[in-house]
């Protein structure tokens, strides 16, 4: 039951009997302070002005027609014309019992909507940090709440699984003769990433090889795609262990990596060129601001 809606209907009916127009707004809200009751009807101010009478006078007339028997233990007029409503504890207890007996705890289902929740979003070849965990927990709480309300929720785990770092990681795998990346643990990859980055920054020959590997990877070379998939799979497997430990509802099916957009890029570039937004500059296709 929506108590605010119930009180609004009751007050509105009493206002109409007291002479207010049929479309009057009772403005029933939860009270900001306990001394003003549980709810307060503030609509007398606006309606009284239209009727050419004092708000308190209208409130007094409304009170004579307001039937909250069994709902409120006390109803009083405060200030210039506010109506304070104190709910009856027995009424509240009865409805709490009804809510407890209900599978949905008395929460009505709204009109069903499709809602996308983008959360967690870890990076590949790195352990999740506290920011990822925060997003994961808050996002899953939002998902569960929306599903409880009856909505269709699409979980979007948008992971960082594409970019120049993969050329660097694959090059370092080769250098360390660890091509069988499937046996590596994520903890190894965390240190592995730092070592690869260090060599990338300090060894120009290594950096050049890594950049070449990025080109091969983005060009769809089967060998480099296979190495990339191993790095992604290790990370996703470890992340799923973390999700299960946290009792989070994310699964591998919810992963929407940056690589998801790769097949779409040629069409997007062609469209940008057709509209004259993308141009060739120094061997690259760019969009200038």
Overview of this structure, please?
The longest helix has 24 residues, at 222-245. It contains 10 helices and 8 strands. The chain is elongated. Helix 6 packs across helix 8 (204-218). With 289 residues, it is an alpha+beta fold. The chain has 3 domains: 3-92, 2-Layer Sandwich (Gyrase A, domain 2), CATH 3.30.1360.70; 165-263, no CATH class; 264-289, no CATH class. The strands form 3 sheets. It has a 4-stranded antiparallel sheet with strand order 1-2-4-3. Strands 5-6 form a two-stranded parallel ribbon. A hairpin with a 2-residue loop joins strand 7 (278-281) and strand 8. The two termini are 54 Å apart. Helix content is 49%, strand content 13%. The mean pLDDT is 91.
Q: How many separate helices? A: 10
Number of strands: 8
Whole-number mean pLDDT: 91
> What distance lies between the first and last C-alpha atoms, to the nearest angstrom?
54 Å
What percent of residues adopt helix (DSSP H or I)?
40-55%
Helix-strand pattern: HEEHHEEHEHEHHHHHEE
Query: What structural category characterises the helix and strand content?
Result: alpha+beta
Shape: elongated
Uncertain stretches of 5 or more adjacent residues: none
Main beta sheet: 4 strands, antiparallel
Number of domains: 3
Cα radius of gyration in angstroms: 31 Å
Biggest β-sheet: strands ordered side by side in the sheet: 1-2-4-3
Q: Brief description of this entry?
A:
This protein is an alpha+beta fold. Helices cover about 50% and strands about 15% of the residues. The chain folds into 3 domains: about 90 residues, Gyrase A, domain 2 (2-Layer Sandwich); about 100 residues, no CATH class; about 25 residues, no CATH class.
């Amino acid at each position: 039951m929506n108590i605010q809606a119930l009180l609004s209907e009751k007050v509105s009916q009493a206002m109409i009997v007291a002479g207010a127009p049929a479309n009057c707004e009772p403005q029933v809200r939860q009270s900001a302070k306990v001394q003003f009751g549980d709810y307060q009807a503030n609509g007398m101010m606006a309606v009284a002005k239209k009727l050419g009478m004092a708000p308190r006078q209208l409130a007094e007339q409304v009170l004579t027609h307001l039937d909250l028997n069994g709902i409120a233990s006390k109803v009083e007029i405060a200030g210039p014309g506010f109506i304070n409503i104190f709910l009856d504890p027995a009424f509240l207890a009865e409805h709490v019992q009804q809510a407890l007996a209900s599978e949905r705890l008395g929460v009505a289902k709204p009109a069903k909507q499709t809602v996308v929740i983008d959360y967690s979003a870890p990076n590949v070849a790195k352990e999740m940090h506290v920011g990822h965990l925060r997003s994961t927990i808050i996002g899953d709480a939002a998902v569960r709440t929306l599903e409880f309300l009856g909505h269709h929720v699409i979980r979007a785990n948008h992971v960082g699984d594409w970019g120049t770092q993969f050329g660097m990681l694959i090059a370092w795998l080769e250098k360390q003769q660890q091509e069988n990346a499937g046996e590596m643990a994520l903890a190894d990859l965390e240190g592995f990433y730092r070592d690869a980055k260090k060599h990338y920054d300090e060894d120009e020959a290594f950096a050049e090889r890594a950049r070449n590997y990025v080109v091969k990877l983005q060009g769809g070379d089967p060998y480099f795609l296979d190495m990339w998939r191993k790095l992604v799979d290790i990370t996703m497997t470890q992340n799923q262990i973390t999700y299960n430990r946290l009792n989070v509802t994310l699964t591998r099916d919810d992963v929407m990596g940056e690589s998801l957009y790769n097949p779409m890029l040629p069409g997007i570039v062609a469209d940008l060129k057709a509209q004259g937004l993308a141009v060739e500059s120094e061997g690259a296709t760019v969009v200038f601001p």
